[in-house]
Amino acid sequence: MTRANTLRVERTPALIRSQVLENLRQAILDRRLAPGQRLIERELVELTGVSRTSVREALRELAAEGLVTAIPNKGTIVTSVSAEEARQLYQVRSVLEALAGRLFVAHASAAQRRALVRALDRVDRLAASGAPILTAKDAFYDVLFEGGGNLALRSVVGSLHARVSVLRSLSLSVPGRLEHSVAELHAIVDAVVAGDADAAAAACARHVEEAGRAGLAALSEQDGG
User: Fold this and answer.
1) Structural contact between residues 98 and 201, judged by C-beta atoms closer than 8 angstroms
2) Which of 147, 160, 217, 224 counts the highest number of beta carbons within 10 A?
3) Span between the terminal Cα atoms of the chain, in Å
4) Which of 60, 78, 96 is the last residue of a domain?
């Protein structure tokens, strides 16, 4: 495991549990902990500087999110996403996010529309500075799904969040994808500002489809294909 110091956890008792979970989750999303890599508790204790109990609790939560997999008699590994699994996830995301765009135009308040614009502004600033944008994109989608007012849709999307985040991280690693991704978010907001539900749905679906092309290409390259 490389760049060990980036996994160290601040010794604030009330925050240790959440910090170790977030640090390990981010390491998986950043691929510092690679798909298929075996996670040895003793090594994670050394890397994070927390107790074995805290590490085990974090691994249980990551397993519930689908980011790690516990294999009987073998231990815990970072979950690998196959090309077929990724393809299916992108198909589902395309439908769900198109619906989210349509519902947002139909139901979002003026305040929520302004919040979506502000969320996009934050993505723009981070992208321009070269900083990671995944957290800002999550915030953008939080506004989008909340504004649609459909709790069932938000629940389904939430259940997919961890695996979707892995694919987002992978697709954004493709050269040139970041710029296209930001432009696609602008198309979504432009449609929302225009009050065009059909265009918003189409822009959301296109964003996922383009991310899917990039993500599947990255998966293929990663697998030596």
Assistant:
1) yes
2) 147
3) 25
4) 78
Least confident of 132-136, 179-183, 196-200: 132-136
CATH number of the domain that residue 63 is part of: 1.10.10.10
Strands (DSSP E) contained in 41-139 are 68-71, 75-78
pLDDT tens by residue, 121-172: 999 999 999 998 988 999 999 999 999 999 999 999 988 877 788 888 888 8
Residue 109: how many other CB atoms lie within 10 Å: 10
Global pTM value: 0.79
98 with 51, same domain? Answer: no
Phi, psi of 128 (to 5 degrees): -65, -30
Query: Which tokens go with 26?
Result: 């981010």
Domain count, the chain: 2
* Residue 151 shares a structural domain with residue 194: yes
d(CA 13, CA 9): 10
